[in-house]
Backbone:
């Protein structure tokens, strides 16, 4: 009985030592953070709802998407509102923002989850996930 327990513990330790995360990345659930930036975020919604995005898909203000100037379409990023520490993971499906000083435009739903609707523009951290 004792030998079985020791064997089980050793097997568990061995399996854990086989998994690795690149030294330059930290993990978020099952995704790794590969880069990050800080700046201002805004959101867009009603006026663009139903229109085509730069990726060719139809914009839906009620799903978790965002516009970024350079990240590839389909990239997932975690956006954290630095005023209240609320975070949301969104998928890049559009280009922008075009307003000076902003690094990301969020869908209205993402802005709701970050509690930034009233403020309109907030300081955020954007982390690219892999």
Residues:
């Amino acid at each position: 009985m004792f030998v079985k327990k020791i064997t089980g513990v050793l097997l568990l330790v061995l399996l854990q030592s086989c998994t690795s995360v690149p030294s330059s990345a930290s993990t978020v659930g099952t995704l790794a953070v590969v880069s990050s930036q800080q700046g201002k975020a805004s959101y867009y919604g009603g006026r663009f709802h139903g229109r085509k995005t730069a990726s060719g898909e139809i914009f839906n203000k009620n799903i978790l998407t965002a516009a970024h100037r350079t990240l590839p379409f389909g990239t997932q990023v975690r956006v954290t509102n630095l005023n209240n520490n609320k975070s949301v993971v969104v998928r890049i499906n559009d280009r922008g923002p075009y307003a000076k000083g902003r690094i990301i435009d969020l869908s209205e739903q993402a802005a709701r989850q970050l509690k930034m609707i009233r403020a309109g523009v907030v300081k955020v951290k954007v982390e690219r996930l892999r």
Remarks:
- The mean pLDDT is 84.
- The longest strand covers residues 31-44.
